[in-house]
Amino acid sequence: MKAKLLLAFFVLGGLSSCQQSEQEFINDQSFGFISITDGLTTRAINQIDVVSLCADTETNFSIFDLTKDRKSWSDYQSDVKFYAHYPKLNENESKAAERIVQGGAQYLFAVSTARLNSSTIALKFGDMATKFNVKVKNSDGTISTPKSLKLKLKNRGKQNLKNGSIILLDSSSEAISFATTDNEELSGYILPQTIPAGTMMTAVMGDGVTITARVKENVTLKPGDIYDFVFDKNQADIIIDPAIPL
Questions:
Q1: Which of 101, 110, 107, 130 is nearest to 226 (CA)?
Q2: What domains, with CATH codes, occur in the chain?
């Protein structure tokens, strides 16, 4: 009799343990995020970690570590759209609908709709600025890389934090410069805009030789694209074309 009671106790205990595990699984409504960086204009970003994240049902952005933080479906109850910025926003920007941005920096933005009860949400980040590379086409057709670039462009904009778009603020251009301290390509980030024909740019070579030339024709630079600024020594022109991926 004692053996039967002991067996019943173990059976009931096992059923209780299974029911508890099942209940814990049902109650685990958390979900996480992964970042997708395919096609970004930099090779330096292998993994995006700490971002500013906001749902379309929320007003403010909050700091969120994509590598370890999670959210709960109990806070949303239905499909929800998320917006993310990398690098993360500062405290004032996190509470605003827009922010002021300047050329010379990379602004990564992602938006994704999370389906109810999904366990993992993919955030595909895109560049909202425009990257450029600077090259010099020599008289013999060879290509050289200058050490620095000086030019005048519109350099301030206003970014909508819920769609990532950047609108230029300045009606006039300002002088800006970019430089490299190593043997790698000379490149940088500017705000998307149209560069008018006749815009002057100056490149300085490693030996100190200065090359000044004009942009040959109007070019509209799009966010997320990469362009080559090619100084043509023979024509004293600058040709701006989409960069050819390596």
A1: 130
A2: 29-127 (2.60.40.2680), 130-242 (2.60.40.2670)
